[in-house]
## 1
Amino acid sequence: MQFRSTRSHDTLVSFKEAVLHCLPPDGGLYVPASVMDMRRFFLYMDSDTNYPELVSTIAPLLLQGELNPYSAARVTESAFDFEPELQQLDERFSILTLYNGPTGIFKDFGIAFLAAVLEELIKNNGRAMVLSASRGDTGPSMAAAFKNRQGITSVILYPSGPIRGLDPDTFVPNGGNIIPIQIRGTFDDCQRLVCETINDRPFAERYGVTSANAINIGRLLPQALYYLYAFIKIKKILNGDLIFSVPSGNFGNLIAGLYAWKFGMPVNGFIAAMNANNAFGDYIQGKTFLPHSLINTTSPALDVTMPSNYERLASFYEEAPAIMRNIVYPASVGDAVTRRVMEQVWKKYNVLLNPHNAVAFAAAEQLLPSLDPSGHVVVLATGHPAKESRIIKETTGQEVEIPRRLSMLHNKTDPIALIDPQLDAVEGAIAGGFASCSV
Ligand SMILES: *Cc1c(COP(=O)(O)O)cnc(C)c1O
């Protein structure tokens, strides 16, 4: 499969180039250039197929010529010591649990695959510096995925404030390959600096700079695989439509679902489940999109006003607006309903939902009657209940047991450097081997 910029159909690049360069020179984002029908490969997988089998079968087909089956098996094994889990609740609803990774957030899936595949792609003849911005949970996810990867240094830019959930033993001065850097600025500064550094082509080429943020297609694409996994687990019981309900903030997860559909997954719709920050629903319905001001809710990962994947979603709509209007359905769920659904789902199914997951569940309940009454909705559970134990206690009365790997995410660490929010400061730190800027 080849990749192109959202802004041009002319230049095609390989997966390796898209992953290593991260951003196309024209300011767009990389997207798959062609549709690949994979139906004949996964339609006949049965529900006994496990996740590593699925990944190591489909990934080398998608990345033909770049990832052979042996490499794919190695990547799968080194990326995933965790798996998605599909739990059917009744005829109408299933939950796809995606929070079994090291940090209890579905983002572990894309980051883990990216880290493992990057190591495989540069094996023998390269090195990479992965420069990423983090404000909370993604830093530990990146540190877990990239630690000890051959030829790779992972530099994580943090805004002002505490840095949590990293293990100092993995830091470069202690013989590891992780470098947390604090920027005197905001998360937006960190994201901007990542893009500016990558867009300084000569510099980025010289040091092999790329990113593990969602701008990297190598993180987004593998997320399509858990949709296929849900499909092979659920297909036997389907009588009507299959719908996925996706808690959506920057819309990476939803776009990964659309890729699965492009690969041939028989699916009838995706619910873009938003909280009160729902302005993007206008765009999905074909109206003009005007970002609103930010509203703080009980599902903070969905508190996004301008989705960073906007251009990727827009490229689907430019191609086929009428089809898109009939496959992506926006829904908006307020905090009061979110809380009520957390309580109801506990009482009815004995399942604890993190508020992000509850937004998707509530959106599914809201829309299912108007879609196909005999349809089945797979609700994506993106966050571990233990990450929101206080609100779960309030809504269900239940104490959530906190796994040890998640309680460690509260441990504070110091950055190994503190720098100003300017491109030359970041480039100076990289060029100087991070020596001259200790805190
Ligand atoms: C990041 C995140 C989301 C939103 O995913 P997008 O791909 O940005 O739409 C949903 N739930 C949780 C728990 C998250 O951390």
## 2
Amino acid sequence: MKVPLLDLTAQYRTIKDDVIAAITPVMETQMLILGATVEKFEAAMGELTGVKGSIAVSSGTDAIVLAGMALGLGHEDDVIVPSFTFFATAGCIARLGVRPVFVDIDPKTYCISPDAVAKTIARDYVVKGDDAPPVHRKTGRKLRGIMPVHLYGQCADMDPLLEIAQIYRVALIEDAAQAIDARYKGRPAGSMGTVGCFSFYPTKNLGAFGDAGHVVSNDAALTDMMRKMRVHGGHQRYYHDVVGMNARMDALQAAVLTVKIRHLKAWIKARQERAARYVTLFEKHNLLSIVTPPYTAPDRDHTYHQFVIRCPKRDALRDFLKAADIGSEVYYPHPLHLQKCFANLGYKEGDLPETEKATKEVLALPIYPELSSEQQSFVVEKMAEFYRK
Ligand SMILES: *Cc1c(COP(=O)(O)O)cnc(C)c1O
């Protein structure tokens, strides 16, 4: 038996006819960029998130860059981010000249720790006046935002983060790339902060047939700015109010996504069922004293973009599974604060202990709606075999 980490072809087979029917008119009309097809998908995303401003863009990366540009973030600014995340979270703002300020995670959810955020601000920043952003004590840089990442499909602890953002009047940028339709106290990921950013990279829970992404915001002025900046900074062609970028979504991607978004809730449910099945199997094989399954906070749900365990002898287990044709992956093996490109920021090993510990212990197992119970049993039997030795 083979158990790949992810099998996108299995999903495609279930929706093939609908996808072909949806992309055909795009090809026939050659209306390939933005237009009615993209607007239809924007409406669907607006409905799913319950957010007024819904803008389809070219990737999750461009979603974050666009949000940062529209917020006016730049060379004098700091934004607080987790270090335990995909590179784009910090890379996109660093590209705008922003200094990422890395903080540690909650070791249970792997999401940014609101406590660490509060402590970092209290320790490193001074509040100058009512309307002025907090200023870094040593560098004089302005704190302009906090960017939680809803990692693996579960929301970060948003209420305390929203409170901190409100107290210090900084933007709250949600990196919801991995957590479309995940809920925090009933509220959808991406809908709670100043702006929410999504990715439709093919492997995400809602994946396009290539690169695509999305931003949502209830702030009308910010939405207008992002809409402008998506097409080089003007609503009217050849007239540019501001300098923007090209962050447009292709109509072909919107057509595919409009078909797929109808299945999203059922697919998430299937992921949740498979996650529960893994835990039952761990129990059956007496693995729960050895491996730590994903934790879901009581006020949240988990959409299992990834099913990530903590386990001893992680790398040896991974090799053992690989030899049995079972895919697994480490998200993420090297924390952002220790990346070479951020060496100038002066972080060193030991600065973020929970983040560094997680990079050495986490392992993502195969999870997708089409994963069969036989495949899951095989994965867990092999894990049990490994730990018996
Ligand atoms: C995938 C991802 C992104 C970037 O999205 P792309 O569409 O690949 O550009 C950003 N942040 C996180 C947390 C992601 O997982």
## 3
Amino acid sequence: MINNDPSINIAIPILPKRIAGLKDISLNLWWTWNPRGKNLFKLLNPYLWKETRHNPIAMLKNMSQEELNNACSDEYFIREYDYVYNAFQLYIQDNNIYADEPLPIAYFCAEYGLHHSVPIYSGGLGFLAGDILKESSDMGLPMVGIGFMYPKGYVRQIIGTDGWQNGAEEPINKDVAPIERVLDEDKNHFTIQVPFIDPPIFASVWKINVGRVTLYLLDTDIEKNDPWDRQISSRLYTSDINQRLRQQIVLGIGGYRVLEELGIEYSILHLNEGYPAFALFERVRSFMENENLTLDEAIEKVKQTSVFTTHTPLQAATDVYNFDMMSAAFKDYWGKLGMSKEQFMNFGLNPDDPNAGFNMTVFGLNMCDNRNAVSKKHCEVANQIWSHVLPKKEDATSTIDYVTNGVHIPTWLGDDLASILDQSIGEKWKLLQDKLSCWSFIKDIENKKLWNISQNSKVLMVNYIRDKVRVKYAKEGIDPVVAMAEGVLLDPDILTIGFARRMTQYKRPDLILSDLNRLEKIVNNRDKPVQIIFAGKAHPADIVGKKILQHIFKTAQESRFGGRIAFIEDYGENVAKYLIHGVDVWLNNPKIPMEACGTSGMKASINGTLHLSSLDGWWPEGYNGENGWSFGEEPSDDTKDAEALYELIENEIVPLYYDYENDTIPNKWVDKMKEAMVTIPSEFSARRMMKDYLRKFYIPISLTLQKSKK
Ligand SMILES: *Cc1c(COP(=O)(O)O)cnc(C)c1O
């Protein structure tokens, strides 16, 4: 027997009444940031849990009716089930803390990093967006998300013997992803037409429950569309510029349409990066049509009520569409706004390069009075590079403010640490997490206990890596040298440095390989050995990035490093969690000031994995001299920076890690871990970030809107 609810794509066996709530739990990503939620599914069938890569829906689908019936008579399971289901319901029903203020927010982003069963992310931008939805849910902020369903996901990374990254598609399996169809009145899959775009494009709509927040995803892979249009949403960050433009039209204008047609009320529009910025045009049009505003009034209102977050310190990194492409796509559109073509195009015109085309960042900056960069340092850079675009007024609406990114603590904090928090402070730590004092209890944890947690995470990481390679070897019979380069010889007992991020030139992934003879000595130090673990994907079109990756992979194959340099294939949310918890040092060495913020170092630091970074992105705000290390010149100089990095490792990091001083653990190292774990979580929590967004933008906008209504 199968489930016949048309909104749900899954054929789960009929759940016994006693545990019927598993359906609700599995269709809400809430469980992913609740340790007992995760554990509940694992209890049900640990083998399948692993086999389905922690996907409750895939798991339930693969269980027999008998197995499910048996679970009902398992006392321990039932107790856990009751606890989790009760906690889940209380969470969902909890009154919105911010029910009146501010007004609801619609959050638009091209990607969301939520869980690996929903592969609609590529990296940092997506994880930020995912953490924002989770935190808004925890805080009871009225937010709704808009994004894209990418049937073909982002590239899955497969590295050949020669170290070259080959991409493979990782199609999303809609049958087992935690997604639901949105239905129209006739119980058909709800579909919109992107307004005034010719030829017409249609998109059907899915939803994902992120706690109390709903994320709607547009999907163009439907029969109603021409084959070429079906491919619009097929892949994240396609290099085909025409498809890219069409993606962004569907995301922005189509996404706006979804909210209107579903009657979802919201007042504030928040655009995360320029990709969804076309929503601003649709917002102008909607104000003119629904509120009878003139074009100028509508533009003014859009400016006042929309927030634009920029993420890059480089002008060249924004999307620019040439005017011919723009004209072809929008020829039926600008008239609907009562604009001339020239007026329309002027919104995206970059005065520094007026012939290049329509610039999405310029457009976002022009149309939103509420703008922000993502760290203090990025703010300085962003105001410099865009000063020619910003209005020449002498008030706050003429600059780019900043809200430094933060991370969703319940997602990224290790389960062992979370349970110590629960025991020491109780559940209320979640309310206090952005207060420095919340974290001072860490100082009281016995050094030995903390050390054991971190070393145990390292064992789990090494086991995970070996198992990943073992499975690959069993399936494909890979060259043993490749197996070694992918980490089978890693040692859970030695100092481990991790470098996991996108493989691209400005991040200098191979800086630490600058002097291989020196590195060889560091790695093979008889008494104080070191190993280095790399991971990260290159963008499929980034040849330089792929060459850097290849260089690392080939170095990892050299026998002189004895398997102590490893490259872990297919970096994603799951690998990231193992590495962040498992390594001792988190290395970050971008060319200053190219890293707008970076968030993986925050995830590492809150777990006591010490951050070793150039003073870029968030680190100038986070580093206090004791809670990690900084190095490097500004502006960056590869030779000097490599020298400084080696010196730090040789003279400070290695000696400190192996300084046991007649004890069984390195106490000074653990003290440093504690310093990071006390000083970093509150300031770099998503809670603090969302409070900044509230204080700087959402609440002032709400007050203005409420005043204008009176
Ligand atoms: C946090 C995270 C990122 C972003 O981290 P950066 O420091 O910006 O590189 C990228 N990928 C994954 C899987 C992450 O978890």
